[in-house]
Amino acid sequence: MTQPAPDRPAVRPRNPCFSSGPCAKRPGWSLGGLEGACLGRSHRAKEGKAKLAAAIERSRALLGLPDGYRLAIVPASDTGAVEMALWSLLGARGVDMLAWESFGQGWVTDVAKQLGLDDLRVLEAGYGALPDLGLVDPERDIVFTWNGTTSGVRVPDGNWISDQRGGLTICDATSAVFAMDLPWDKLDAVTWSWQKVLGGEAAHGMLALSPRAVERLESHKPPWPLPKIFRMTKAGKLNEGLFRGETINTPSLLCVEDLLDALAWAEEIGGLAALIARAESNLAAVAEWVAASDWAGFLAKDPATRSCTSICLEIVDPWFRSLDPAAQAAAAKAVAARVAEADAGYDLGSYRDAPPGLRIWGGATVERDDMEALLPWLDWAYAEVKAG
C-alpha cells in the first residue's frame, strides 16, 4: 500500500546550517565573541604571538596530544596541512595509500603524479566501504583519511595500525578531530582545519607531528624541491618556532579569535568527551530515523564505520532506483533544494563525486534538537519530489 505523503512539518531547526564545511557555528555564537581580536596588529607582535600560541596550546590540551608531539598552524586549511606532510615526509620508504572517497583519491593523485613515487601501493574501496585494512604493511608509510567526508565512512579504530611499525602514519583527520577518539600514539602526522568540528572560519590548517615524524624530517631530504610554504626545517633541524605560532605566512587574527571562542565553548561544555558525545548523539538521531524510513539508508553499510560528522545517506526507494543516473542526481538535488527553500536545512546535497543522495553534518556544534527537527523535512521534501 502506498504511504500517504507527509504533511509539511510545522517546526524548523533553530539553526538550519548542516553544511559539511564550513560547518555550523557553535550554539550561541555571535560577532560579540570576537571583540577581543588582535586586529590591525602584526601577528609577530607580542599580542599576536600570544593569540597564536594560545590557539595551539588550548587545542593540544583539549585533544590530549601526547608529550613530545608538536602542533603548528599552517596555511591553506587541511589541504595545505596534508600537502605539507606529504611533500616533506614521503620518499624514505614505500607508501601504502588508502582511498575510499574523493579526498583520499586526491592524495593518491598527488603522490603518484606530483611526487612521482614508484614504490606506491593503493588500497581502494568504493563509496560506502573501507579497503581491507589488514593488507597494510607496517614497514611502509601509510597515508589515509580517518573519516571520509564525502562518503560518510570512517575507520572504526586504530587497531589495524601496528605499534611496532617501521613507517609513518600520515592521517588526514579534518572531519574527525574533536568529534572522534583518535589513538594519537598510532598517528605520526595528523592534519585538520578549523572549519570542521569546531565551526571555525576557513583558510587555516593544523599539523600535529609525533617524535617519529620529527626524526624523519631531520634525517630525510626529499628528492623534490620544497616550496617555502611547506618547509619545516632549517639547516636540517626542525623549525621549532613554527610550533610556537611563528607561522610561515600571515594568518588572520580574526579567524584565530573565532577559534579561541570555539575552544572556550568546548572547554565549558566538558571538553573532548562532550564534543564526541554530541556528535555521536546526532548520528544516533539519524540512525533512529533511517531505521523507520522506507526511502533513505546509510551510504556506509557497516554501522561500525558510519561517520558521526559527515552523515551520508543514499536513496533506496525502488522508484528512485528505477531512474537513470542523471535523473537520480536531479531528484536528489531537488530534495535538498526543497528543504533549503523552506529554510529548514541548508547545504544538504551529496558531494559532487559521491553517489546521488544527501549529506548532513552532525558534528559537535549541531544541536540534537535541530537534527531531529530536520528529519521530517527530508521526508516531506522527498515525497514532494517523488510526486512530481
Task: Describe the model.
The protein is of the alpha/beta class. It has two domains: 31-268, 3-Layer(aba) Sandwich (Aspartate Aminotransferase, domain 2), CATH 3.40.640.10; 271-387, Alpha-Beta Complex (Aspartate Aminotransferase, domain 1). Helices cover 34% and strands 15% of the residues. It is built from nine helices and 14 strands. It has helices at residues 46-63, 77-89, 102-114, 211-219, 253-269, 272-292, 318-321, 325-341, 368-387, and strands at residues 70-75, 95-99, 120-124, 141-145, 147-148, 153-154, 169-172, 189-193, 204-209, 233-234, 237-238, 296-298, 310-315, 357-361. A seven-stranded mixed beta sheet has the order 1-9-8-7-4-2-3, sandwiched between helices. A three-stranded antiparallel beta sheet has the order 12-13-14. It has a two-stranded antiparallel ribbon with strand order 5-6. Helix 1 runs parallel beside helix 5 and helix 8 crosses helix 9. The longest helix is centred in the C-terminal third of the chain and has 21 residues, at 272-292. The chain is globular and about 70 Å long. The two termini are 19 Å apart. The model has no long low-confidence stretch (mean pLDDT 97).
